Protein: Bifunctional protein FolD
Amino acid sequence: MTDDPRYLKGAPVAERILAEVREQALAATEDGWKPKLVSITVGDVDAVDVYVRNQRRKAQAAGIDFEERNFPATVSPAELEASIHGMNADPRVTGIIMQRPLPAAIPVRSMQRAIHPLKDVEGMHPASIGNIVYNELDLAPCTAAASVELLKATGLDLKGLEVVVVGHSEIVGKPIAFLLLSEGATVTVCHHMTRSLASHARRADALFVAVGKPRLIRADMVKPGAAVIDIGINTERDADGRERVVGDVDTESVKHVASWITPVPGGVGPVTVSILLRNTMVALNRQRNLYEASYGAR
Ligand SMILES: NC(=O)C1=CN([C@@H]2O[C@H](COP(=O)(O)OP(=O)(O)OC[C@H]3O[C@@H](n4cnc5c(N)ncnc54)[C@H](OP(=O)(O)O)[C@@H]3O)[C@@H](O)[C@H]2O)C=CC1
Ligand SMILES: Nc1nc(=O)c2c([nH]1)NC[C@@H]1CN(c3ccc(C(=O)N[C@@H](CCC(=O)O)C(=O)O)cc3)C=[N+]21
Structure:
């Protein structure tokens, strides 16, 4: 079933990006600039496990060092911030990603701000997010950038394309909208106060869904021939009690209407990981350029 040509799979896109990352990482290492990504997790969060596991696997395959720093759920904001400052100052650390969610006692935004913009490989610091508003797109939030890469893989021309984004979180929906605007698409953003999600969604040539609700998008909400990018990752139990991961789109019905649909798993997720590693190399090159501009070329 996953051989259906309508499935817009993540693996080929992810592999292409990872091959470029690997080449850059090897060249940088030879020049004495070994890339290293540090992942921060706080407490034990199932939702993050898969992501971190894949980050470690793909980083190692690409020649990027990967270190996991797990803090207890009881860590204070001040302690966490002090650790981040330590990583900012450590020249061996190229990039820092702070996995979400954080415990309620820790203010996500101030922690995001504590990561130096030059090491912010998720593109979530206000200074980084600001760049995409100015059409500087080389380091964008990973999931948003991954979703747009998948749309590009359809070959559709983004200029003037009618796009609807469902979900407006700061980490996924909003940056998708900004990236698409920069590419010339006409973008409508829907959220929980939108009056008729179905009537907006049905107009879309490309529909992005990042909400966290299984089967939110059904076949009657999709324009025939549309590209559907399903970003949701939800865990459900099936009838015999087994856990399975599903997106926000009712894939079985929508695939008869859409021309392209990203599967979950196997769609946006793997591309997100490869973009994180690509961002690590963008960060490394920025640090290296700054160093060489300050101290002269090696
Ligand atoms: N594949 C990947 O790499 C990643 C996948 N994800 C997945 O993507 C999904 C979204 O993540 P994230 O953006 O962090 O989640 P958030 O919970 O932060 O945001 C969800 C968004 O959906 C909107 N929303 C809620 N209910 C509705 C509704 N009925 N109709 C329309 N919009 C609605 C919310 O709007 P409002 O604020 O107005 O309520 C909000 O903007 C999750 O399933 C998550 O697991 C996340 C990150 C990476
Ligand atoms: N700061 C932050 N940024 C995030 O982007 C972020 C986060 N925190 N917290 C958790 C969520 C979730 N997320 C996933 C990314 C890829 C896969 C992924 O690779 N999924 C594979 C799963 C394959 C398998 O099951 O092994 C797939 O969809 O095919 C999963 C989940 C990123 N998130």
Residues 47-48, 50-51, 54, 98-100, 122, 142-143, 233, 264-266, 269-270, 272-273 surround 5,10-Methenyltetrahydrofolate (ligand 2) (CB under 6 Å). Residues 268-295 form the longest helix (28 residues). The two ends are 53 Å apart (CA to CA).
